[in-house]
Amino acid sequence: MRTPILALLCLLSSATLAHDMPGMTMPRGPGLGASAAFDAHGRLWVVDAADGHVRLRHSDDLGKTLSAPADVNAVAEPIYDEGENRPKIAFGPNGELYVSWSQPRAKPWTGFVRFARSPDGGAHFAAPVTVHHDRAEITHRFDALAVDGHGRVVIAWIDKRDLEAAQVQGRPYPGAAVYYSWSDDGGRSFMPERKLMDHSCECCRIALARTPQGRVAAFFRGVYGADVRDHAFALLPTDGKAAHPARTTFDDWRIAACPHHGPGLAVAADGVRHAVWYAAGHGPAVWYGQLDPGHPPRHVLKLGGPGASHADVAVQGNTVWVAWNQVDASGYALMLRASGDGGLHFGAPHAIATSAAAVGSPQLLLRQGRAYVAWNTAAGFRLIPAGVP
What we know:
The protein has a single domain (about 5-385), classed as Neuraminidase (6 Propeller), CATH 2.120.10.10. It is built from three helices and 27 strands.
């Protein structure tokens, strides 16, 4: 089924359009694109952007109150801060705090991937660096950030250098590509970037998760054939070996543009790859499944139909949580389903929060075996307990 472009635009947030359309001014003040994470001591950290700065806040009371914001980048710069392309946060093995974001450039739909490191848990940040060695004013954006089991900082992003080269040569090149890099020295420098896969979707966020072996896995939307937008899974090698991405959803959704709905991924201790994604090949819906790269997912479950979007997933032992946004005429509901048997069966969906104001994408977080949903709304940041199955 080919989705009309008008329907596609309805999927995009107003913040995205303001950032990406030529001649439009980026809004001042904080956007809805926030990321949150718990550190090793259980403290909650939140990053977003306002007035040209990535802002860092923390909470010691599970989000009830947040500290005054501290600037990650001392010198103001443009920052993408919407749901699919928001600042990210991660932690190193010795209390380091890492933040990444995408910086708009002068030309429309372009960007640089930026990174800043704090060796002292957020008290001080080094000056930001640009991660990729390629400095052409093209798309390097929609960054994803993770730290592997050896403490390497791994960053993946969507990149259009191969599209640009193909256009110069008069060759077709559907979509963009996914590139990645890593740092062996705590983010002081990054290795020359490597291509993960040709023909990715242009603006769907990339999901990264650590495997039980300490490697970083990626789950992202690709382009198959002319305009089929399904997903791929790959491990990100940091030893010079080649990556082997494999198609892992087979919804056969045909759309000649990016739907702006990236997936979610969580890898359990037993290696099961729990995933959530959006597709509209058989009607718009968000889905859960367990990835089997090269084959259709197992234990597939439709989470929500029309109005459902931007799902996330988390796993702890045999408990799996999935959360997503559901919108209707009355506003937004934050929906949750949970499984106590490793994703084989889920309880009924139920709303754990509502908002009449605009909302960002939900993010599932784990703390001491319990799950919480970070939900940034126009009325303020919220952390909502997910409960148990």
